[in-house]
Design a protein that fits this description.
heterodimer; A: mainly alpha; B: mainly alpha; 69% helix
Amino acid sequence: MQGQITSLMAHLGDAWSPGQRLRSLRTVAYWILTLLVAFEMMAGGIWDLLRIEYVRVVLAHLGYPTYLLTIIGVWKIPCAIVLFLPGFLRLKEWAYAGAVFNYTGAAASHFLASYAGADRLLFWWRLH
Amino acid sequence: MEARTNSLSTIFSRADRLRTIAYWAFTLIVAFENAAGAMWVFLPLIPGINELHASSVFAGYLHTMLAHLGYPQYFKFILGPWQLACAAALVAPRLSRVKEWAYAGAFFNYSSAFVSHLFAGDRSDIPAAVIAVFTILSWALRPPDRHLAESMPISETRPLSWAASALILALLLILSLFWLPKIPSQ
């Protein structure tokens, strides 16, 4: 009896505890971020494969070859799909890895392409 | 019966040993390729290095290759740090999640290199395709304590294993100094 009451109390406590609220907040945050990334991936993948003007201009500014759109676009679509699917834990890991490589690479490319000679600034001691 | 069980277990342990050897062979080749890739990027940046080592060959090779494939010259500074991290993660003990990322990155890199050569109108770049396949083989043969999630390592990793992996990485980096590429004539 004592044990039952304790476990009931614990159960009620759990349901109203900040821990439970944090968990549901976490789930909401997870889905918002996942949907954002997956949407960006899917849209970007389609843009890349269609080679719309926007991505061609950006790519030309960054100095990458146009065929890179095909390589990246082909990966982006399964990446977006895998992020949605339940399970596929290892594939998800690859999708996350690819997404991080893609977006950090894009950010670094914008930085390095916009500042002419930025790659030299990174290694300024060479100039001395 | 006893004898039969014994011979079976011998066969299994031999298969296990073969698997371990194959795993390390593929892993070391892929890790070496990545370590060398990072060295080609960073070694030529050291001032006065050309008096000690013909690293201008590295710089020349990268310059020619990037120009030929149509990639910007700064691309090597994005790839280089990742490649060094990839080599370190592949030879390190455990770190199963980081390894998964290293395998993903290495496979994206080498398969994309292969495809880029095709797009750029070259004959197939067989070495890149081979390294991409070796990446998958190393991934498929990795032992349980390097697997993600299903079996997290139960035992403690000895400091010696970390030291050994640091040593392997250092050796791979040193070895890459002797691996001079031939610059293709444009």
